[in-house]
Design brief:
The structure is a single chain. By secondary structure, the protein is an alpha/beta fold. The chain folds into 2 domains: 133 residues, Aspartate Aminotransferase, domain 1 (Alpha-Beta Complex), CATH 3.90.1150.10; 241 residues, 3-Layer(aba) Sandwich (Aspartate Aminotransferase, domain 2). Helix content is 37%, strand content 19%. The strands form 4 sheets. The protein has a 7-stranded mixed sheet with strand order 4-12-11-10-7-5-6, with helices on both faces. The protein has a 4-stranded mixed sheet with strand order 1-2-3-15. Helix 10 packs parallel to helix 12. The radius of gyration is 21 Å and the shape is globular. The mean pLDDT is 97.
Length: 393
């Protein structure tokens, strides 16, 4: 019996090493990794530049805490602000912490302006903002909240994409709107660009902060550094993590100076957040993502992958129903059970991730090459053909 708490339904696989888009077991079985640690290994496994940065920093200094200035934080924060809407950054260890920080900031913003009653945050159904007691309350999904009540108060959940319902939920206590531009756990559901633009207008009209949770779609996965950029608007606050560290645990929430004006000394903190190791890796990953042409290539590869998946759905309508997503955050809505599909793909050497609404997520590293897309498509086609044939027999 394992001494590890049984909170995961793990596959019976143990990986020994990784290289680029591939993972290898100790007995040298190779798997094409289109799970990427759930959209985390953004620049692939063992990227030389990132490995060198981690090794170099590990030989000098691991941790000092935020009692002191950390040069890597100053550098990464400056770069993130130069390449986004933000003026300031707070570094955390995970996406859940980043979302928690964004929630705190929104409430503190209004309190600092003499409106302490404005504490409620509007969220949408199907959202996933993490697994802390506050972030599961924010999303309100019974799958994650059951048995963990009473839930943290302060959240009003409305239907995804319904602007009338969202407007109707605004009261004198509303502080912010919090939305994922593309829902990940919720089934790879992208918000329309017009919906995002309208959220910006509504937030401005009612004096609310607009928070985007880009933990999964951010840091290049959409084909732009941040997913909301496609809509030509900006939030007041944004949570990021996952691909930011390429596999090293690091997250952040970013904000305008105005939105963050209440976040003064002592209002928030983290022992590990933004330590020298995390910052060395974060800067190295950003080096890769900001290389000339990198994001344009993510967009190009994502569009090609999308077209190939459309052809796959048309070829196997008894297995797949539709393609969803943006960039290299794509999903196949299945006719057959998605959990079984994930298992059969894994048996054929392709790693994927299930999501809500019977969707299989396809989240390759952003460094994926056309030949690896083609390899994945061959496996998807083979598994679908065998499934259809066995069902017809």
């Amino acid at each position: 019996m394992s001494a590890v708490m049984p909170t995961y339904a793990r596959a019976n696989l143990e990986f020994d090493r990784g290289e680029g888009c591939y993972l290898y077991t100790a007995d040298n079985r190779r798997f094409l990794d289109f799970a990427a640690g759930i959209a985390v290994t953004s620049v692939g496994h063992s990227h030389p530049h990132v490995v060198d940065a981690l090794k170099s920093q590990a030989e000098k200094l691991w941790h000092v805490s935020n009692l002191y200035t950390i040069p890597g934080q100053e550098k990464l924060a400056k770069r993130l602000c130069e390449n986004s809407f933000a003026d300031v950054v707070f570094f955390s260890n995970s996406g859940a912490e980043a979302c928690e920080g964004a929630i705190k900031l929104a409430r503190k913003y209004h309190s600092a302006d003499g409106r302490p009653e404005k504490t409620r945050i509007i969220t949408v159904k199907g959202a996933f903002h993490g697994r802390t007691t506050t972030t599961i309350a924010a999303a309100g999904n019974e799958k994650y909240t059951e048995g963990f009540g009473p839930l943290a108060p302060g959240f009003d959940t409305v239907a995804w994409g319904n602007l009338n319902e969202l407007r109707g939920a605004i009261t004198h206590e509303t502080a912010a709107i919090m939305v994922e531009p593309v829902q990940g756990e919720g089934g790879i559901r992208p918000a329309s660009l017009d919906y995002l633009r309208e959220l910006r207008k509504i937030a401005d009209e009612y004096g609310l902060l607009l928070i985007f949770d880009e933990v999964q779609i951010g840091f290049g996965r959409s084909g732009k550094l941040f997913g909301h950029e496609w809509a030509g608007i900006a939030p007041d606050v944004m949570a990021i993590a996952k691909g930011m560290g390429g596999g090293f645990p690091v997250g952040a929430f970013l904000a305008t100076a105005e939105a963050a004006k209440g976040m003064t000394a002592g209002t928030h903190g983290s022992t590990y957040g933004g330590n020298p190791l995390a910052m060395a890796v974060g800067n190295a990953v950003l080096d890769v993502v900001l290389e000339p042409g990198f994001l344009e290539r993510v967009d190009m590869v994502g569009r090609r992958f999308w077209k190939l998946l459309l052809d796959l759905v048309a070829k196997h309508p008894s297995v797949f129903e539709e393609v969803r997503g943006a960039g290299l955050m794509l999903g196949l809505k299945c006719v057959v059970p998605n959990g079984e599909m994930v298992g059969r793909l894994r048996e054929e050497g392709l790693l994927t991730v299930p999501a809500a609404e019977n969707v299989v997520r396809l989240l390759p590293p952003l460094t994926v090459e056309d030949r690896q897309i083609d390899e994945a498509m061959a496996i998807l086609d083979r598994v679908a053909a065998n499934w259809a044939a066995s069902s017809a027999a």
